[in-house]
Each structure stands twice: as structure tokens, then as C-alpha cells.
Amino acid sequence: IENLIKTLIFTNQVPNIPKSKLIPEQNLFRLIISTFFNEYYVTRIKEIKDKITTTR
Asked: How far apart are CA 25 and CA 15, in angstroms?
């Protein structure tokens, strides 16, 4: 699933088209995906930090 999402993100990045030209669905999609990834990675980093501190 993660690779699929990454692919979707990659294909959804259209640098040569201004954001205003994107359809609202694309902006929403981008927002949802970025939110999901932020949450996911923040959680993962926290878990890893917790592991490190407990092993010390």
C-alpha cells in the first residue's frame, strides 16, 4: 500500500501546472496523502526514539 501511495503522490505532483489549475479533487487528495504521511512518519519516529531511549 505504501508504494502505491508513493506512486500516487509522485504521479500527482505536476510542477508545471499552477496549483490553481488543479482540480479540487487533486488538491484534496494531496492534502489527505500528506496528512497521512505526516501522521505516519511522526508516529514511526516517535516509536524509534522510544525504542532507543529504552535500550539505553
From this structure: 17
Evaluate if pTM is beyond 0.70: no
| R_g (Cα) of the chain, nearest Å | 16
Residue of 11, 14, 9 whose CA lies nearest to 34: 9
> How does pLDDT run along the chain (56 residues), one tens digit per residue?
567 666 666 655 555 555 555 566 777 777 777 788 878 888 888 888 888 777 76
CA distance readout (Å), 44 to 30, 38, 49, 52 = 21, 10, 9, 12
